[in-house]
Amino acid sequence: MSTSSDTRGTHGTQGTGGTQGAHGTQGGQGTRLSLHAADLGRPDAVALTDVELDVAPGEILTVVGPSGCGKSTLLRTLAGLLPPLDGRLAQDGRPLVGPSADRALVFQEDALLPWRTLRANVELPLAIRGLPRAERRTQAEAWLAGVGLAEYARQLPHRVSGGQRQRAQLARALAGRPRAVLMDEPFGALDAQTRAGMQDLLVEVLAGTGATVVFVTHDVDEALFLGDRVALLGAGRLTAVRAVPHPRDRAAHDAPALAALRHEVLASLAS
Amino acid sequence: MTADRAPTGPGSRPARRRNRPRPAARYALRALALLAVLALWQALTSLDVDLWLRFSQFPTVTDVAHAFADRVSGPDYWTDLADSLTRIVTGFLLAAVLGVAVGVLIARSRLAEDLLGPVLEVIRPIPAIALVPVAILLFPSNEQGIVFITFTAAFFPVLVSTRHAVRALTPVWEEAVRTMGGGRWRVLASVVLPGALPGIFGGLSVGIGVSWICVISAEMISGQYGVGYRTWQDYTIVNYPGVFVGMATIGVLGWLTSTAVELMGRRLTHWLPRTSDAPAPRPRLPRPTPASSVPAPAPRDGAADRPGTGPKPEEARDEHLV
């Protein structure tokens, strides 16, 4: 992750005063998200029951499970868009009610507002935070540059490729300086090469933000590459949470411990 | 940033209008179409054709042109024009503002839907022009009555299309803004209104047309001055060229106003993907055959199954030639 310091450096020098400087160095300002004995879903369609989950500040938790197992429901609950049907949902020990800028959500695709240019999309969370226009513009451009889209800042979303849209979405989510980033299969619609590049980019831009990440995916390799821990969903339950050996290390792909975990995860998905 | 992560994807600035005829040629074609109709009219009337349809009593194009020249040089024509335009612009703007407001309200609030929905659904089928008696009873002057009828005519198309457009919005847009900390007004201003705009303009286009029908009819029934009133006057005194001048005027005014609505709509919804603009709406199509480790994009779980935005509000953007 040698490039990560460059990226953060770019933002650090954009000069947003105290908040940004503190942000870069402090790290660990991620939030703790916890679910206790929680039932999730809609009243007429309960997706997950009796969920016990504690996401530590600053960690990357990946969530895998077959489609339809409630991955998105879990994420929307953590975002505050969907109140739990039963049990407790807390952020840093306090009850979590409703969405907030603290917890940004990144969607699979097409969540950029199509009438806004990429830059205007990234400016949106900054505008909501009440930053003055010039400041918004500078920061948005810095974030777009950070994800390699500097020259596309004035393009409309439908004018750029799917991978570029997802990078813009990532920039938009991080621009609001959330303490947690909730990602719903963000690279699910991308082809293999683009996806690997996006994973590296994600690791790069997350470094130094200190944000807690919950990353939902159906791709086991992706889950084991990105996650500090991996949570397994199946049959309406959270079946296991496992620590991942060698997180974010491509070279460790064939390490025995990782191979064993991959085997276990695949077996649990198949059952 | 490493270079290999530089923008992938197909060219982001496709050559525009590659296979389209030049605009000048298209305008020439349109002018030609109008001239052809005028020529046919002139031929049928000057030759007094009587083949079941009887053109012998019909004024010729030249008769109408003379009458038109007379009218244009007189003062009445322009006051009539100004009167009709004032009525339609007032009524239509009121309908646009209230139609969008009520449409959004009904689409977003169950209470508003329950309270206003039934009332509006009962009033909606009544043709606006049938409200003339109501207008006469309600309003102190004819003028306000006519504006009321024009307003009612445009209100419902705007209301209904706004309601549909707001309901058809992709939920992830709102969810995204809410997880950025945006509140109700932010969602309204940044997602609902801009996102519904293509649909709203569909309603406005219909509305301006219906408004003309109703303003002219109302003027014929109860008006004093105005293009409709004048046309009816000419009919009662059997001045047929005058009637045709009135019709031509209505036609041109209607065309101009709906063109204005259309152009404004296009300007405000310029962000819509155009089919003629190549890579949209799905620019990432030429995907390299993925390795076996990449399954097809999984269907989203549960309630989160929502349509992509793709060529979403396309149906609202009918390609009017203006």
List keywords for this structure.
heterodimer; A: about 270 residues; alpha/beta; 6-stranded mixed beta sheet; 4-stranded antiparallel beta sheet; 10 strands; disordered N terminus; B: about 325 residues; mainly alpha; MetI-like fold; two-stranded antiparallel sheet; 2 strands; about 0% strand; disordered C terminus
Characterise this structure.
The complex is a heterodimer of chains A (271) and B (322). Chain A has helices spanning 2-12, 18-26, 71-79, 118-128, 133-146, 162-175, 192-206, 220-226, 256-270; strands at residues 33-42, 45-55, 60-64, 86-91, 94-95, 103-106, 180-184, 212-217, 229-234, 237-243. Chain A is an alpha/beta fold and 271 residues long. Chain B has helices at 23-46, 61-73, 75-108, 110-123, 132-138, 142-167, 171-178, 184-222, 227-236, 240-268; strands spanning 50-51, 53-54. The longest helix of chain B is centred in the middle third of the chain and has 39 residues, at 184-222. Chain B has a domain at 76-270: MetI-like fold, CATH 1.10.3720.10. Chain B has a two-stranded antiparallel ribbon. Classes of the chains: A alpha/beta (271), B mainly alpha (322). At the A-B interface, α3, β6, α4, α6 and α7 of A face α7 and α8 of B.
In a nutshell, what does this entry contain?
By secondary structure, chain A is an alpha/beta fold. Chain A has nine helices and ten strands. In chain B, strands 1-2 form a two-stranded antiparallel ribbon.
Characterize the biggest β-sheet of chain B: 2 strands, antiparallel
Count of helix runs of chain B: 10
Low-confidence stretches of chain A: 1-28
Report the sheet-strand fraction of chain B.
under 5%
- Structural class of chain A comes to alpha/beta
CATH superfamily of chain A: P-loop containing nucleotide triphosphate hydrolases
Q: Return the average pLDDT of chain A rounded to an integer.
A: 80
